[in-house]
């Protein structure tokens, strides 16, 4: 997974997953308020935070969350219920192996499974259970969308042959990088590393690349010939040994120093191994958009929104 693709995936997580689990708290608060007519009860007024002498109550917090995220959360909660109802009607189930496979596809580009789980927890507070719940939902939704779509083996074979390069073994480079804006700074950084300073510590303090600086210069696993990465950086990584540091080399108006942390081999896939993935992909191409399917299922199962959610002020 490239840096851009990883960023896109994280954006999807923020918009569709994180908000869902936030909804558990938000709408629990809504339900509590409906049964408690005294909104000034001590537990509702109890401050959850304070700043500059001002208290923020739980009600203020919940109201702000409802105003900003309420509509999205409610739609997602309704979608989950509708999809579960449709899956039960159609007799669809999801196996542990399907969930594992869905999660594995999300982990591409991370140095390990644990690195993926750590980032999801540290950045979004998402547990393994929550990640598996979202993966389960995605698999069910796709199965519903493609249930009545037939894809011939000939079509699958044709796709595999046209994209055979995508299924060949490929090397993945685990790279760290320090970026600075001039050659003198680059040489100074290199001298510090050669003198024994830790690459990650120098990257954290000196790199001008915000994305990698936050992870002490580490870019994660990058496929060889990744078109989104600078050719100069990838060429350096291919020329050095694991653990070596190389550079500086100019990339556009910047100078970078590279450390090769590791190299992994991504296994290829035979036609037999890839055919089910290809079949699902081609079926999804012929299905209605998943968001439209969710809307249809909400309608089918009589979604009834009984609260008025105000639109946030622009």
Automatic annotation (TrEMBL):
Q: Which SUPFAM superfamilies match?
A: FKBP-like, Triger factor/SurA peptide-binding domain-like
Report a single Gene Ontology molecular function.
isomerase activity
Q: Pfam families in the record, alphabetically? A: Rotamase_2
**Record-listed E.C. numbers:** 5.2.1.8
Q: Does the keyword Methyltransferase apply?
A: no
The record, for InterPro entries, names: PPIase_dom_sf, PPIase_PpiC, PrsA_foldase, Trigger_fact/SurA_dom_sf
Q: Does the keyword Oxidoreductase apply?
A: no
Broad class of enzyme this protein falls into: isomerase
Residues crossing the lipid bilayer are 7-27
Annotated ranges, domain PpiC: 177-262
Q: Which reaction does it catalyse?
A: [protein]-peptidylproline (omega=180) = [protein]-peptidylproline (omega=0)
| Record's protein name | peptidylprolyl isomerase
- What is the organism of origin for this protein? Paenibacillus polygoni
